[in-house]
Design goal:
By secondary structure, this protein is α+β, with helices and mostly antiparallel strands. The chain has 20 helices and 32 strands. Strand 29, helix 17 and strand 30 form a beta-alpha-beta unit. It binds one RNA strand through strand 12, strand 13, strand 21, strand 25 and strand 28.
Amino acid sequence: MASIQIELPDGSIKDFDAGVTPHDVALSISEGLARQTLAARFNDVLIDTTRPLEQSGKLLLITPNSPEALEMIRHSCAHLMAQAVKELYGNDVQVTIGPAIKDGFYYDFYSENKKFVPEDFPLIEAKMEELARADMPIERKVMSRDEAIAMFRAKGEDYKVELIEDLDQETLSLYQQGSFIDLCRGPHVPRTGVFKAFKLTSLAGAYWRGDEKNAMLQRIYATAFLNKKDLKTHLERLEEARKRDHRKLGKELDLFSFNEDIGGGLVLWHPKGALLRTIIEDFERKEHLKRGYDIVVGPQLLKTDLWKMSGHYDNYRENMYFTEVDEQGYGIKPMNCLAHMLIYKAKPRSYRNLPIRYFELGTVHRHEKSGVLHGLLRVRGFTQDDAHIICRPDQIDAEVKGVMSFVRDVAGIFGFNYTMELSTRPQKSIGSDADWELATCALKNALDDVGEPYEINEGDGAFYGPKIDVKLKDALDREWQCATIQCDFTLPERFDLTYTGQDGEKHRPVMLHRVIVGSIERFIGVLIEHYAGSFPLWLSPVQAIVLNVTDRQAEYAQQVFDQLRAVGVRVELDLRNEKLGFKIREAQVAKIPYMLVIGDREVEDQTVAPRFRDGSTLDSLSVTDFAAFVAAEAAAYK
RNA sequence: GCCACCAUAACUCAGUUGGUAGAGUAGCUGAUUCGUAAUCAGCAAGUCGGCGGUUCGACUCCGCCUGGUGGCUCCA
């Protein structure tokens, strides 16, 4: 038998007979390693431990500690779940696909009779545990296409047949564990005994192949980890996310509500929420003015003809609200750009005026499909911190970089990390190929120059231009789409925007659409979860609350309150005849940063005794000192 | 929009295998004047999301609608 050379990661080279498997190689090192080996990477291709090696090459054994391990276990665990479901429900259910995803995996099933409910989970989990305990080998089989089609057809697995028919290859790999066999590229873990910690998490509908014209499948989401401890940590994290849910906190902190009589996706801002919004809006105006933006305001309604001219009517109509009065059609604005272009057009512009940066806290309405609405994160009426930068082509680069640095500053103030993505031309779009090319390059060059990493999303741009999307990462490391920068050559063309160049000729400017936090509504939703409702002092709708111990201090407490409010501290007063502990508890639950306790001592010394939200206290200090302290902290965005 | 599920007092939730409902918190009244996360007692509070249907009788069963939840598709 021919001999081959296998190079291991430590650089050592060993001779083996051709046909040796990664498992055999592991065994030649130690029995323990062989037991631990889940798969292997041979010449950079992932393979099963039982795959015979026919030629020399580099071999890396994959064990539970390898970075690839978790994803593999999850993918294999999806097969385990499918096996369990088939054993429980047999031919009532057809299998489709089941990949690993972030934090777990899912499997999509088709069934006419069986409707999965969460009550089925314990049963399925028990079956999975039984199959895992049986420690069955998971074996790779190779079949011809026709053979595989015949086999799945005989089993009544129509979806598998369809998948294979669309595959452009003559032989296919399948994986078998016990009586269950599934089409799969692999690789998989060697035995079902590997699965030690898994849990079914939720149930959802999903279209076959993600297309809403196709049949609706039943998706079971689940997760799997290397061990029970990691699973527990993950479940605790989910629990933490639930506690921070902005819909729950929004109600508890009395920030906002929705009302079915008003309509879905339309927010009612209660006093504290409206104050929080106002603080953010004031911050936005100040930061934009600092960076050379001009504040403008456009109307809510614009004539339908204008939306036809812009392309919104053709490309965005299903998301818009229209109305007709005096036989004139109007569209409620879903974007702010048209008004900004018309402000630009209100008088002749020179190259000397550019760039012009129009900023508007623009309230827009978009008819989002009912099923996508979600608290503040997806609504139908929202306010964007929107700006349109109209500039010469040679200014694009500097302007895009300016926006990116603006994003960096703001993300830093709120304590977010972020990642960036470049999205290119979508199917449904307007404008010439040359302009798209130019615009995409401009964005890409700016990204490359700044040197921060980014990903490319093919075909994910806006209909009028490519875009850079910024995803903020919150305290739980979850990503949120907020900022976006879009480069647009088309709308300036359609609206015939011009400027007079140095040469005295008319030239076409470029327009950058950009938002920094995006929608104020969404951003506040994200902030609530990011801070778990405990806003930093500068954002807190209520920064301090004055608490008297008994009625004896009421008069002085009132004085302190008046004095603080007069110098701009957002302060409340609790004079109720309740025990101090009770008042503290309420202020604590309301997540107010500072409680100012006033007893006989403070009246005597003309001071206040501050208590922090975290339970710590400061020595008593004068009201003016406290006000100065708050002002300094807030000015530093703390 | 699609699939599944849910809707009981202001909030969180219990309950009736079809005979019209409770608890805690909040609210109100009274007592208590208290030093860093819940003082005590009493009172009041719901067309059981809306509209139809089945039934002697519907909060409970069925249908439609509205709103929400988890996803899918779509998106700031």
